[in-house]
Amino acid sequence: MAAVYDNLRLHITSDSFYIESLNAGSRDVLVLDRINFEINLRSNREDIPPSLAESKLIYGIFGIIRLVGGPYLVVITGRQRVGDILGHTVWKITETEIIPFRKSLLNLNEAQTSDNRTYLAMLEYALAVDSFYFCTSFDITHSMQRLASADTGFHSEPLSSRADGRFLWNRHALHDFLDRPELQQFTLPIMHGFISITACFVQGRTFDLALISRRSTLRAGTRYFVRGIDSNGEVANFVETEQVLIYAHHICSIVQTRGSIPLIWTQKPNLRYKPSLHLVGDQEKHLKYFNQHFDSQIVTYGKQVAINLVNHKGSELELARAFLDTVNKAKCQDITYEAFDFHHECGMSRWDRLSILMDRIALDQDQFGYFMQDRDGAVFMKQSGVFRTNCMDCLDRTNVVQSLIARRSLTKQLTQLGIFKPGHAIEQEFDLDYLLKQIWADNADFCSQQYAGTGALKTDFTRTGKRTKLGLLRDGMNSAVRYYKNNFADGFRQDSIDLLLGNYVISDSDNQQSPFPSMQQRRRPMILFFTYLAFSLFVIFALIPASGFTEQFSYILLWAGATFLMALYLLRNGVDFVNYPSLVHVKQKED
């Protein structure tokens, strides 16, 4: 397998982009024509025009994305070293640049120019998320077990060709490159999620501990606009998380998954703190999509233990019952359902009660085992099943439970490798215990930022092993920010994700109608809000010179009446004030 070039120089002329490989022994130059948009590979650096070209160092090509104004080249201009896995350096993207092929947009009318600016802002927003990773010489989209199980032909393929499509976030952007083998050393696969790699020193031994969360592209989105399952059996917020231990000549890992409850359900934002939950469709349709999802999961990961952490009351209970009913109707021996009312069991800071769940799944975890091999390729053990954990959002509660499962597995691995003596616990090693808590809490924050728009809740427990007053305060602040973003910012964020992934492709037609709301539609909610604000200010200023209780009370009563009517209107028409997506997940009012 040829590694992807990790040092490049971009030369920009009026007619072409020249991307020169700076790797030793290479003379390759990738030429992207800015006029006819053709891509060609040359092996002569002298083809680059001297002195006339603007030149800059880049670290990879994210891809090409077409907007109204034509194609745009996206390149990586900043990176940060995360660490090394088996001698291969993993990088996090810190900065990108979007460069238009066309030198001007003079051929666009005013509306098209406005739309192009909006699309460009969406693309910039999506690329600015602090969670994109790459490695030019190692496949970070596959688990260690999948890599070990693959045949020789697989390992000889280019990184971009063999990457797991579920976790390839620039697949759409690379569509001009993927079918051309000669471009493989310029074709860099990008993963989205979280990676931490840390060297540990325990009991006189040194080993590397890595945590890798791979976020799926197949039903990606934001917290309220993407819920449940789709017709292809893909679920919202699906994340594969792998904890890897590398010691001497041995590699151990455990894989877990998280994903939205695999039924067809929605929870559209409408300004209420917790919008109404709706199950959509009949039982037959739920069962069909449920089976599609788990059939795929079983083929990929083996047996499944579905851990459901939602509440056993209110609207969450309705969803939990539907989940259990569908599991029973599926009658699949490879699926086990484990319900645990997290909030009820662990309420009032009774976090020790998580041991109830851990004891119930201990036998399954022992049966599933974990993956173990040596660096020569000999496999000693394979993981035969996974825990598929979910709560409502697959964020806070889910991460707490996954961290405990990973901790138990790590204890067994360290014991088998001879680093721990039998009966020794991670809690007895302060530095390792602290590190494990921190990386899992960071994982929670990254996954939460990507789906809900804020850091995770309950990370004080993950970081310290107990709930704190500061943690409760932080959770309250995050909940408030989540409310604001989910109602007033996530439409734009959802559109940004759909544009980046190619779920929405901009037509080449000049007569394409703008998908974005008209100025009149955008102004309507603001007009109502400012009318109420002006009325409120009028009442306040009228109260200042008012004399007597009767006059003051009349103004206050009038203000209270207007506030009541405003609140009633918002409750009934909240969706009109929500920032809904405009491209794919457009507004649909609930009945």
Automatic annotation (TrEMBL):
Species lineage: Eukaryota, Metazoa, Chordata, Tunicata, Ascidiacea
Catalytic activity: a 1,2-diacyl-sn-glycero-3-phospho-(1D-myo-inositol 4-phosphate) + H2O = a 1,2-diacyl-sn-glycero-3-phospho-(1D-myo-inositol) + phosphate; a 1,2-diacyl-sn-glycero-3-phospho-(1D-myo-inositol-3-phosphate) + H2O = a 1,2-diacyl-sn-glycero-3-phospho-(1D-myo-inositol) + phosphate
GO molecular function, one term: phosphatidylinositol-4-phosphate phosphatase activity
One GO term (biological process): phosphatidylinositol dephosphorylation
Enzyme category, top tier: hydrolase
Top-level taxon of the source organism: Eukaryota
Domain SAC: 123-453
Keywords: Membrane, Transmembrane, Transmembrane helix
Record protein name field: Phosphatidylinositol-3-phosphatase SAC1
InterPro entries (UniProt xref): SAC_dom
GO cellular component, one term: endoplasmic reticulum
Membrane-spanning intervals of the chain: 526-546, 552-571
Listed EC numbers: 3.1.3.64
